[in-house]
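Key result, reporting period 2: structure in, sequence out.
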């Protein structure tokens, strides 16, 4: 999470940000920014099944990997093209998952 994110949050009125916890949810926030309807549907499905937040958080990676696949596996380009995402680092785990899927994928 970049300092630019925190400056933006402070300017927007946030009084306190738990940086370590925020790192765990960056990809979920990114998924919401890219596809809010799909993100809400996924969150709702996990809530209805009574699953915990951690399992929902892990499930948010797969749609992001699919988005990267549709963009030629260039997850950085996906982030940089979106005005709300360009200030974020691409999470390492997301980058690793994209690399793994790219090596295993036949077609998107």
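The corresponding designed sequence is given below.
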């Amino acid at each position: 999470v970049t300092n630019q994110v925190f400056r933006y949050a402070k300017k927007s009125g946030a009084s306190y940000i738990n940086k370590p916890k925020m790192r765990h949810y960056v990809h979920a926030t990114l998924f919401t920014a890219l596809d809010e309807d799909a993100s809400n549907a996924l969150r709702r499905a996990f809530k209805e099944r009574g699953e915990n937040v951690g399992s929902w958080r892990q499930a948010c990676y797969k749609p992001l990997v699919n988005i990267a696949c549709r963009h030629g596996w260039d997850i950085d380009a996906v982030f940089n093209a979106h005005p709300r995402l360009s200030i974020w680092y691409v999470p390492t785990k997301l980058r690793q998952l994209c690399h793994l899927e790219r090596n295993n994928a036949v077609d998107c």
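The chain has one domain: 18-104. The chain is about 70% helix and 0% strand. This case is discussed further under Risks and Mitigation.
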